[in-house]
């Protein structure tokens, strides 16, 4: 017997393909980003001497804590780097006054507007690389694309919401048997940041 699809997740036949409403949202997002890119095509090139790096962790407290061992590793590899973090209000106490964080952005709200209103601020910072640690909001990959960063790196933890092609690197390593801290260093590996022998969690304010 053919499985019935709930009404709230009905599918439509769209250019000879079966497309869910979530996929249609992604098609719309991609179309708008292509339009934006026509008028604002500039990309900020990664400078290994003094890179400007944005870490994105907009979910719960735990993921923010697991990200802290990456901060000293970045500074050790790139002593003159500028590192900023985009986090949720839950993650703010983790990164506030955390060594290795040069600037902190706190994302309040889950609406598209509350996310996209950060575009002018982030573009002015001219970030050259972004590491998507974890996110639950569909517009976060779009925001990362709109920063103008040349390097946009994510891993296979469902944060991209089907928008993986907005990243320059999408690491498909299976995370099922990998500790969350190890997953963060898989991200960092793509910026030539080595994993320390004994990663340590940062102190929470």
Element pattern in H and E: EEHEHHEHEHHEHEEH
State which percent range the strand residues make up: 15-25%
Please tell me the overall pLDDT: 86
Instruction: Measure the end-to-end span.
Output: 56 Å
Determine Rg (CA atoms, Å): 18 Å
Number of strands: 8
**Main beta sheet: strand number and arrangement?**
6 strands, parallel
The unreliable regions are 1-16
Cross-sheet strand order for the largest sheet: 5-4-3-6-7-8
Tally of separate helices: 8
Shape: globular
Helical/strand content category: alpha/beta
User: Which percent bin holds the helix content?
Assistant: 25-40%
Can I get a quick summary?
This protein is α/β, with parallel strands linked by helices and about 200 residues long.
Q: What does this entry look like structurally?
A:
Strand 1 (11-14) and strand 2 form a beta hairpin. This protein is of the alpha/beta class and 205 residues long. The protein has helices spanning 21-39, 61-67, 70-77, 92-95, 112-116, 119-125, 140-146, 180-189; strands at residues 11-14, 17-20, 52-57, 82-87, 103-106, 129-134, 151-155, 169-171.
Give short descriptive properties of this protein.
alpha/beta, two-stranded antiparallel sheet, 8 helices, 8 strands, disordered N terminus
């Amino acid at each position: 017997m053919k499985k019935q699809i709930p009404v709230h997740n009905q599918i439509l036949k769209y250019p000879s393909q079966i497309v869910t409403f979530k996929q249609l949202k992604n098609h719309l997002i991609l179309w708008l980003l292509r339009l934006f890119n026509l008028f604002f095509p500039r990309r900020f090139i990664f400078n290994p001497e003094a890179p400007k790096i944005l870490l994105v962790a907009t979910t719960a407290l735990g993921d923010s804590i697991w990200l802290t061992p990456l901060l000293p590793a970045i500074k050790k590899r790139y002593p003159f780097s500028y590192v900023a973090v985009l986090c949720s209000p839950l993650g703010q106490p983790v990164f506030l006054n955390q060594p290795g964080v040069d600037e902190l952005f706190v994302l309040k709200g889950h609406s598209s507007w509350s996310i996209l209103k950060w575009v002018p601020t982030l573009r002015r910072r001219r970030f050259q690389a972004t590491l998507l640690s974890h996110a639950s909001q569909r517009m976060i990959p779009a925001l990362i694309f709109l920063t103008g960063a040349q390097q946009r790196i994510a891993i296979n933890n469902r944060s991209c919401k089907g928008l993986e092609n907005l990243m320059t690197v999408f690491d498909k390593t299976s995370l099922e048997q990998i500790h969350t801290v190890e997953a963060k260093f898989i991200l960092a590996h793509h910026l030539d940041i080595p994993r320390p022998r004994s990663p340590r969690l940062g102190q929470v304010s």
